Amino acid sequence: MSALAEEAATPAIRRRRPRRTTLAGLALVGTMILGALAAPLLPWDPEAVDLMARLEGPGAAHWLGTDHLGRDVLARLLHGASVSLGAVAAIVGLILALGIGVGGLSGLLGGRTDRIVMRVCDGFLTVPTFVLAMFMVGALGTGMANVMLAIALSHWAWYARLVRGMVLSLRERDYVAAAIVSGASRPRVFVEHILPGVLVQLVVLASLDIGHMILHVAGLSFLGLGVTPPTPEWGVMINEAREFIWTQPTLMLWPGLMILLTVMGFNLLGDALRDRLDPTLAGDGC
Amino acid sequence: MSPRRLTVEGLRLAARRDGRPLELVRGVDLALERGRVTALVGASGSGKSLTCLGLQGLTPPGVERLAGRVRLDGAAVGPETLPGRLVATVMQNPRSAFNPVLTMRAHARETLAVRGVTDDVDGRLAGALAEVGLPEPGRVARLHPFEMSGGMLQRMMIALALLADVPFLLADEPTTDLDPPAQARILALIERLAAERGLGVLIVTHDMGVVARLADEVSVMEAGRIVETAPVADLFAAPRSGAARALLAAHRALYPEEFA
Fold first, then answer.
1. How many CB atoms within 10 Å of residue A214?
2. Is the dihedral angle over the CA atoms A173, A175, A179, A181 positive or is it negative?
3. Of A185, A247, A259, B103, which sees the most CB atoms within 10 A?
C-alpha cells in the first residue's frame, strides 16, 4: 500500500527541473537587465560624436564599431537597453495600475458601472494596438513620455477585462463571504483575498506582453514619434542605420538583434511563468 | 455596557428578475437574547441563510435589501455596525470558508483587525484555540486550511468568532458538512460557549435533532416568512404550522427510535 501511495505521490511533490527554454529566457532577460544597469558605469559616452572615427568596424577602441557620427555602437546599444527596459517597466506599471483599478472597480461594483466600463474596454479592444498607439501619439504629441502613455492606454483594456473576470469569480468564493461577514472592510477584503489571485494571472499576461511592448517602443521610435535622435534607443538606431544598409549593414544588425533577443527572452520567460502558474497546464511540464 | 438584546424587524430581501423585484425574505422579525439559543428552521431555500446575511446588512450579489430595522436593546442601529463587531458568523462550509493560501494565524489577524486589535495575535489565538479544544496552538497557527480536517476548521471558525469577542453568534448550519462525531462535538462546543460566555445564539438548521438539543426557542421559516415562533418544548409537542409539522414528521421518519 505504502509503495503505491509513494509512487502516486512522487510526481506531484517532485520539484520540476526548469526547462532549457526557461533558462534561456532567464539568461537573455538577465543579460539585458545587467547590460542596462551597467551602461552608465561604462567609460564610453553613447552621445560623444567623433567625426574622425565614422563608420568604423569592430576593433579594440570600439568593440562593435562606430556609427555615422563616430559614436560607440556598444555603448549606444547598452544605453538603449536601459531606455527600452525602463520605458517598458513604466508602461507595465501604468497598465497594471489602470487594469487593477478599473477592472477591480468594475468587477466589485457591477451593474451599470460594469456595463459602461466593459463597453469602453470593448472599444479599445477592437482597434489594433499599434494603430491606436500611433493615433494617441498623434493626439498627445511626440516624445518618450507620450509614447509610454499611448502604449499603456492602448493595452490596459485587456488587463482590466482579465481583472474584472477574476474579481467576478473570486468574489463568489466562500472565504471572501467569510471575510465580509467577519466585518473586514471591502478594500481590505480586496487586497487580502482577491488581489493575490489576480496578480498571479496579471504577471503572466504582463510577461507575455513585455516583448510586444518593446516592439511598440522601438517601432514608434523608429517612426520618429518617441525618443528624439541624440538619445540612444534601438528603434532610433535602426532608423539612422537605414542610410548605411549597404555600406555598414552591421549598424542595423546590432539593434535589431538586441530587440530580437530581448523580445525572445521575455516571451520564453512568460511562457515558463504561464506553465508554472496555470494549474490547468500543470501536467505537461518538464 | 454590552448589549443584551438584538432584534431585527421587517427584514425584506429581494432578487431582481427581469427588472422586477422577487422577494426572497418577506418581512422577518427575529430576536436574539444573550444566554439564549434561538433556532431558525425551515426547508432549503426558505430564506434562512439570506436572513442571516441580510440582518447584518449584507447581501449576496444580485440581492438587495428592501427593508429591515435593527435594534440593540431597543435603540435603532445601522446593520453595517454588526458584522465582526457585535455579531460573529459561523458558516456551514468550513472547507471553503478559509482562504486556501493563508494560515490560521493570518485569519486570526484579520478577525482581530476588525475591532482594531493588532497586538499579541499569537497569545489571543492560543487562548481561543484552547477554548474550542484545538491543542498545540503554535502548530495550528501555522497550518493552511488544506492541512486541517473539516471538524478542526469548524472549531477554528468558532475560535475566530471568539476572537471577535462579540455578544451574538450566528451559526448557519454549522454541522451540515461534518461527520456525526464531529457534529456532536461542535454542538456541545456551541452549547458550552453560549452558556459560559452568555452569547446570544441564532442557529440556522434543518435538523430537528439539533434544535431539540440546543435551542430555547424556535422560529420556523417557510417561503421567506416566519410562520411560527415557539419555545422548543411547545413546538415539539404541538406544532401549529404546516412547515413545522412537516419538519417534525421528516425527522420522525428518519429517527423513529427517538420518539418510541
1. 24
2. positive
3. A259
Q: Examine the domain organization and report whether B44 and B148 are in the same domain.
A: no
Residue of A nearest to B113 (CA): A184
CA angle B189, B195, B198 (to 5 degrees): 120
Q: What percent of chain A has pLDDT over 90?
A: 12
With cell 549606444, the residue in question is A76
Are residue B108 and residue B192 in the same domain, yes or no?
A: no
Choose one of B143, B165, B187: the last residue of a domain.
Answer: B165
From residue B79, how far is each of A181, B39, B46, B59 by CA, in Å? 12, 21, 22, 12
ipTM over 0.85: no
What cell was used for A56? 568604423
Give the model confidence (pLDDT) of B225-258 as tens digits.
888 898 988 888 888 888 888 888 888 888 877 6
User: What's the CA gap between A1 and A7, in Å, rounded?
Assistant: 10
Query: SS3 breakdown of chain A: % helix, strand, coil, rounded to 5?
Result: 75, 0, 25
Residues B145 and B102 placed together within one structural domain of the fold: yes
| B160 has a chain A CB within 8 A of its CB | yes
Which among B99, B105, B160, B204 is the top mutation candidate for probing chain A, defined by the most A β-carbons within 10 Å of its own β-carbon? Answer: B99
**What is the C-alpha to C-alpha distance for residues A157 and A154, in angstroms, rounded to an integer?**
7
What is the identity of the amino acid at A167? V
Question: Could you read off the pLDDT of B47-74 as tens digits, one per residue?
Answer: 888 888 888 888 887 888 888 889 988 8
Label residue A225 left, alpha or beta by phi (over 0 means left) and psi (-120 to 50 means alpha).
alpha
Shortest CA gap B235–chain A (Å): 31
Measured CA distances, B82 to A22, A267, B169, B179 (Å): 51, 50, 11, 31
Stretches where chain A sits below pLDDT 50 are 1-14, 282-286
Residue B91 lies in a domain: no
Q: In this structure, are residues B33 and B26 in contact, taking their beta carbons and an 8 Å threshold?
A: no
Burial of B223: CB neighbours in 10 Å, binned 0-12, 13-18, 19+: middle
A192 vs B contacts (CB less than 8 Å): 99, 102, 110
How is the beta sheet containing B20-33 ordered, strand by strand? B20-33, B5-17, B63-72, B75-77
User: Residues B171, B56: one domain?
Assistant: yes
Cα B67 to its chain centre, rounded Å, is 21
| Substitution target from A175, A188, A189, A277 for chain B, most B beta carbons within 10 A | A175
